[in-house]
C-alpha cells in the first residue's frame, strides 16, 4: 500500500484530541462574516459561489423565503435511484448574506469492484484505512467551503448494525464541526473513499448556523478535565441488568453503564442527562466485584470537552477501538465470571485499549499488586499467565512470549526441555537448569527456567535478546520493556501511568478467579 508509514503518522496525529484538519484563515473568516445585502436571485447565487458553496458545473436557482434566500443547485447527471447525482441547498440571510445552513451531497455512483475481486477482501485493497483518511482529508481541504468554523476528523466508530452492509472497499470517513478548536458533532461531513482506486466516490455535508455558549472556550472557566473525570468517577455506578436479547428465557446478569454521560462545565449533571439505576428485583449478590467492574467499564471511554447542542460540556465517548452493535448496546461484564460480553452474551475476545488518562487520574491508585508486566513496542501485552519475580529476576511465560515473536515452540515432557526456533536462531532450556543453549552454544542464565501451574517460565532478557530484541526494565512500574526494532521503547511518564493502571486492573481481574 502506498505511503503507508506517512498515512499512519497522519492518523496518529488526527486521533489526538480534537486536531483540526481544515482551518479558517483570518482573511477567509473576514469574507464569511462580511455583510453582503442580498436583494435578488442573481446576488444570492453569486454570493454562494463566492463562498465556494456551489461546485463548478452545477446549475443554481434561488428564491426568497421571508428574511432568507434559498439557493438550490444540482447537476444534469442522474444518480442511483433517480434524482441528480450532485445536489445541494444553501440558506442565506437577506440582510447580511450570512449562511444559515448548508447541505450538499454527491451520491455514490461508482460501485465498480476490482475485476475478479471481492469488495470485502482486505488483501486486494490498494489503499489502507489510514490512506483513505488522508484522501478524504485532502478532499475537504480542496473544497474550501467558506463556512464559519472548521472540520475535525471523527475517529469514533458507528455501530456494527448501521454498517453491517458496508463493504470494506468503500471507507466512510467522517468529520465533525470544530468551533474554536472544540468538537461539535451535530454538524458533519462524510466522505466515502474507494480503497481500490483511491478516489472519493460520494460525500455529504450537513451544516447549520449555531449559537455557542460560551462562544469561545477561553471565555469560560470550566473545571479541569481531571476534575471532571473525578466527579464522573464518583457519581457513576454500574447497573445490574438481566441481558437476554439472544435468549430471553436464559438471560445473563451483567454489569453495564447507561448509554451516555454528560457533565456541564461547572461540574453539575444537566437534568436531561441524569441517570438513575433501576433496582434489581431479585435479592442477588454477584460474585464479581462491582468496584472492579466499574473501573473496567469506565476504561472503555474517552473523556472529551465538546459542544453539545451549542453548550460547552464534558462527555464520555467509547474509545475508537471499541466496537458495539447498536447505540446504547455497549460491551457489558458478566456479574459472576467477570468476562466481557457483547449484547448477545457472547464473550468478547478482542483486547481492549488501555484506560484513558482521565481515569488513571480519577480512580484510586492503590498499591501495585502484580509482580511484572510486559510492554511490547510500547503496548501492554495481554497475557493469560502473569510474569513473576524469583530471587530478584523476572520470569515470563515462555510459550506466550515466544509465540508472540512468531517462533516455533516444542516441549519435551520427559526431559522437561523447551525449544524455540526462528529464522536460523534456536534456543533450548531445561526446567531448573541455569544453562541455555543458543544455536548449540552454552550460555549461563541469570535464573533457571521454572515450571509453575504447568507452564514454563523463562528469564526474559537472555532469551529475548537471543532473537534480536531489545530488553529493558522499569522498576517503578515493574514493566519489562521489549522492543522489536532497533531502539528500546521509551514510554513517557503519562504512558507509564496508563500502562501501570491497566496492568494492575488486569491483575486484579485475574486475582478474583
From TrEMBL:
Keywords: Signal. InterPro entries: Cu_amine_oxidase-like_N, Mao_N_sf. Residues 1-30 form the signal peptide. Residues 377-481 form the Copper amine oxidase-like N-terminal domain. This is Copper amine oxidase N-terminal domain-containing protein. It comes from Paenibacillus paeoniae. The lineage of its organism: Bacteria, Bacillati, Bacillota, Bacilli, Bacillales.
